[in-house]
Amino acid sequence: MNTETDEPVMEKTGAESAGGQNKCPKCGATDISLNINKGLLRCNFCRHEFEPEKAIDPETDLSKLEGTIVGSGAQDIIADTNDVLTFKCSSCAAEVVIDTSQVTQARCHWCRNTLSLQQQIPNGAVPDVVLPFNIKKEEAKDNIEKFVGKRKFYAHPQFKKEFNAENVMGVYLPYMVVDVNAHSMLVGQGEHEVRRYTVGTGKDRKTYYDADLYDVEREFDIVVEGLTVESSADKRSNKASHKTNNIINSIMPFDTENSVKWNANYLKGYTSEKRDTNVEQLKGLVNTQTKDIARYKTNETLTNYDRGVCWSKEEMEVKGEQWKAAYLPVWLYSYHQKTKNLLHYVAVNARTKETMGSVPIHFPKLLGVSAIVEVIGIILMLITWPFLLTEDGYSYSLFFLTLGFIYYGWIYTKYRNKGARHYHEKETKATMDNLRKKDVFVKKRTKLRNSKIAGVNNTSVKGSSF
Length: 466
Hints:
With 466 residues, the chain is α+β, with helices and mostly antiparallel strands. It folds into two domains: 3-358 and 418-448, no CATH class; 363-416, no CATH class. The chain has eight helices and 18 strands.
């Protein structure tokens, strides 16, 4: 079954209780908040605590997933939806206006009854599921201070002056969580090294490889569980030169299997951002990332091919997929570097404490120290030149000439973390089943110059946004 040709099935996930939210099962009050220590909902009237309703049934067999199922919170956003809505208080019958583009919960100004969306308005503000915060602000603050503290030496003076971890904010960011049931087939060639040897002397020394070439095929069913992609176009953009978006991406994965059904009570004390991307706009990215996951999963069966595999054909038939809009929790510190018009983020995963960030660099200081390191490298080269000289007149001490450049690159990487990202190909839960392997010897290849097979791509990634 190809889900692209089938009409998606809408799965209703909106709150069924009166007022669009859970009431206290003991006293019926609507003033409910999250006890972050226990992960329980707490009635602020009678102090009763109760378990939230899990969104994911652990007994669900995703290998039987067919067609496209879309949660009602993930339905297409209607651009002309009126964000300003009027709600009738279920307690005193007063009419209260809520701007759903800004908030999803408010209080009746007459009786203080808590109001929230009674139904999922197709404006991207209300998801299917929520993953509650379980990391306190103090813990997030400590993590951010430790992260920045290790980078204070080359941090920009203005940043050091203005940095205050107390400004960290708890925010629910919008994501799509996707389960995929698919059938994958890969066809290509792989090589196994049988011999490595050196021929010649001096400058004419050359390393050669002998290898066995095989035709390789892998066919299998694969279930990808909880593939998570940003559903905010702004945060997903890899071309945003004025924002360090990759930092937020890098703190994934989240334990989405512990998500609970949407309930506006979880948003108390935190901010949230609306989703602005529909399922169709994300399907291409999800399909590509699913292929990445399948390709990496296949590597478990390719241990004999130490020179790699070049896949010439990759096919994937999606038999079923399930989409849910989710709010996932992040502690976020931001700093605007005005001189470069660059917004730096330090982010903490509010479930796992995974922390990553970008710190503004004081480049004059970094360049100065790198120059000193380069001078030391030149001195070391001159001192060690006679001791590292080869028969053909080459000295390995030339390596010391690169010390200043290596140091500069290392510090820049440590502070900016431009390459940080979520490794969806390795960190997403996936199960392979019904594997069919085919390995056919083709021929022996001798005197190869490259250490890897030409066109090796079994460890390539195509679906990264960053």
